[in-house]
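S1.2 Input.
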Amino acid sequence: MKSSRADRRTIAAAALAWVPPAALAVVRLAWASPPAVIPSHWSGAGPANAFSPSGDVFAVSMIAAVVAAIIAGLIAAFAAGIDPIRRAVLLAALNLLGALIGLVWVVASLTAVQAATGGTTAIGAPFLLFLVALLWGVLAGAITGPFRRT
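S1.3 Output.
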């Protein structure tokens, strides 16, 4: 059975969902000594008002990002029965979600480092990394989108 161009694009978008957990693992392995305790909740006023062990936040981020990637793979496996627009939206949303969740530990750790070097735990520059997740979701949607000629 010959695969269509749309099938290959769907597989590519599903494969993209594995990049956030892989990147998270690489960052964790490369970071010699991440903060032991990191912010885990921010108040409406800006500064963090709850903290959690870094390992716990890492585990939750990794597990959730892997689950998003598995679901993306299942969507690709059963893509034939899914409307092309719905498939593109689902894969874009899962890539966005996986990237957002995968970045939680990184952003919180960078915020803790910022606070340890004289800054605050307020929402700041590390949160700009979440824009990468938005772009990641858009990329997956653009790859899968039915608006492209097949």
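S1.4 Remarks. The mean pLDDT is 88.
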